[in-house]
Write a structure and sequence with these properties.
Two copies of one chain form a homodimer.
Chain A: E1 4-6, E2 11-14, H1 22-27, E3 32-37, H2 41-44, H3 47-57, E4 61-65, H4 74-87, E5 92-96, H5 98-110, H6 118-121, E6 133-137, E7 149-154, E8 159-164, E9 172-175, H7 185-203, H8 211-234, H9 239-251, H10 266-278, H11 282-296, H12 302-313, H13 322-339, H14 356-363, H15 377-386
Parallel strand pairs in A: 2-9, 3-4, 3-5, 5-6, 6-9
Antiparallel strand pairs in A: 7-8
Chain lengths: 391, 391
């Protein structure tokens, strides 16, 4: 087990009706905020009105910035930064999913910086200061509500890059599972793939003696898989299943499950090229990439892949052949993704395999990827190729 | 799943050599502290000198208060409170195990209060303000290093009572598993029983649909049991096993595993009478009480007890008879406690069963205990009686 620091100061307020607390929570920080949202479902569902009423009651004023898109764009971030500076706003409230939260985090850094906020995403600067960010979560997926991550797409490339710094961890996250009842099944599925991937990135490690977090990772993955099936087989309004999935999405990425471990994160970087280029949902991209990543690494520390197959997918632990067990695990992982309506290949999602050369080059622009196995451009291209055909 | 708030702001600094960071961490708060410890093992091992060197380097001065005993006494707390007030000290650093930390927390509340600090333990007042507390942990057990709990013994009774308030959660906890190499086996075992009990109190719930936290609880318990066996079979200097146990002790009681659940906590209250009256280690008392508590409740929500037997102790899940499975689980729990040198009955620990009437009366002095099954004085007495004979 590696030395580690664990410090997660996000206050989670979880359960039915909790969105009514957003005003009183926010008022503990400021009386004037940037209210950031997509302008879509939160408006239609009436959530935004509820949020505004709660803010009003608590005496909090807001300036509104809507229009965040999936794979949130740098241009919208620039608008938010300018607004905060002009209006001397010192708090950003995100009402939405990972895209809105990531955009809010970018604005929060940019508002404390005189230069171009892209500098942080392009690794020219390290973010050490940000406005506090609060969250009302509507999509369980990215775990951004209590994580230090923000991923932004710069349309100029398009480049999709991330910042991972303590200063952008939200100060509170309000999570009402009922708000997720109306999510389209595809978005629910993408979220589930995303949270599973966050755990898998931590689970596939070369670090020995991480038994406690192995157990926690495996347990969380099993709970996600079972409750995903409940949602997809029983209709979307199963509070219990929605609640398990929503809380699991935070736990998957609040880094408790990563303590003492060295995560891999190559699949995330490989996927980012898909969503940057084809503007596809991150979760769908991960459903395509992760099985290919495991298959490419099938000879690498195969006992761990076999353990994943056994503990998470119920593959008989008495398999005499680790590789056979591991391949069965990949098969079940793919089947699971397909069963909830996700693509597991370029073909499934109509992606152009002709872009593999370009994408693999860009994926390694900051150097080789991963720690479970270091991947150079050729490796990344091979993983993309493994994902081309439906199988 | 119940609505919940989860907010744990303790910064964990975990791993080899981390005690050297105590000075720089403390200096972020103040330049003058109360240094609180037992005066025993931390002095002998040289840890206290290391701590002092680190404080000195960071320009932090200290006033020392040693002499904390297991089942920490109110009289020592009074001394600390007086010292803090007289010397205008605004930070308490605990170097030790749960007793030292609990004592430090009590001092931290008392220093902010004009009346008698026992008022908070006697439920006459609610603690809302405390000095910040930092921790260098030497005994993985109580989870006090990142919990909101403090348990103090008032010699006048003797009464053993607790405070559970957010304001006493430590601001940082430094945890080096190497510091636990020299713990006597009995203390190691008591700590293991304590952390298992913290999870069991949360695990035995009537709340339905808490699948994710069920999985996390079960995984953590399995990891504790396996690594306890490694420590006891392989000698105490197994870094990996010591690290798993140390981190598990925090996770067992930082309340992540309790989110959305309603815990029971009757066994803790029933045990407190044992340690108050016989001055025995809390963990040893729990090893006596918990199997008796399960046995007494064997007809109550038996499937959950059977699940515990199956998932945690490997009892065949195909048992046709839940009760039979549950009893086998209790048998294995007792065997495990015995295997690491703990008593599992009054007889094992030479406790006077003649005190059962008195203890059961005091255990319910604030009302019936528990939520899994509400226990009145007769129930509590029956549980004590189930624990009388070695079995």
């Amino acid at each position: 087990m590696q030395n580690f620091e664990y410090y997660n100061r996000t206050k989670i307020i979880f359960g039915k009706g909790t969105e009514d607390q957003v005003g009183s929570e926010t008022a503990q920080y400021v009386r004037r905020i940037l209210l950031h949202h997509s302008g879509g479902s939160a408006v239609k569902s009436g959530l935004l009105d509820k949020v505004k009423n709660s803010l009003k009651k608590a005496g909090v004023e807001w300036v509104e910035l809507a229009g965040v898109q999936p794979n949130p764009r740098l241009s919208r971030v620039y608008e938010g930064v300018e607004l905060c500076k002009k209006e001397q706003i010192k708090f950003v409230l995100a009402v939405g999913g990972g895209s809105v939260i990531d955009s809010a985090k970018a604005i929060a850094i940019g508002a404390c910086y005189d230069g171009d906020v892209w500098d942080f995403y392009d690794r020219k600067k390290t973010a050490a200061q940000a406005l506090p960010v609060g969250v009302v979560l509507t999509i369980p997926a990215a775990g951004s509500e209590s994580s230090i991550s923000s991923v932004i797409t710069n349309e100029a490339g398009p480049w999709k890059q991330s910042v991972n710094e303590e200063c952008i961890r939200p100060v509170f996250a309000i999570m009402n599972p009922e708000l997720t009842y109306t999510l389209p099944p595809y978005q629910t599925a993408c979220g589930i793939a995303d949270m599973l991937a966050h755990i898998m990135e931590r689970y596939f490690t070369r670090e020995p003696n991480v038994e406690l977090t192995d157990e926690l990772c495996e347990g969380a993955m099993r709970a996600i898989i079972r409750n995903a099936r409940k949602i997809f087989s029983g209709g979307g309004k199963d509070y219990a299943a929605r609640a398990e999935i929503m809380w699991a999405g935070s736990i998957a990425h609040n880094n408790l499950l990563g303590t003492g471990r060295v995560g891999d994160w190559a699949s995330h970087a490989i996927e980012h090229e898909l969503s940057a280029l084809f503007d596809m949902a991150h979760g769908a991209g991960l459903a395509i990439i992760f099985p290919a990543w495991i298959t490419y690494n099938i000879k690498e520390n195969t006992p761990r892949l076999a353990r994943f197959a056994s503990k998470v997918w119920g593959v008989d632990g008495a398999y005499y052949d680790y590789e056979q067990a591991a391949r069965e695990g990949v098969f079940r992982l793919k089947n699971f993704f397909r069963s909830i309506g996700l693509p597991v290949s370029f073909a499934d999602a109509n992606l152009d395999a002709g872009k593999i050369g370009e994408m693999s080059g860009r994926a390694v622009k900051f150097g080789p990827l991963g720690t479970y196995r270091k991947l150079n451009q050729d490796d990344v291209a091979a993983i993309y190729r493994l994902a081309v055909e439906a199988s």
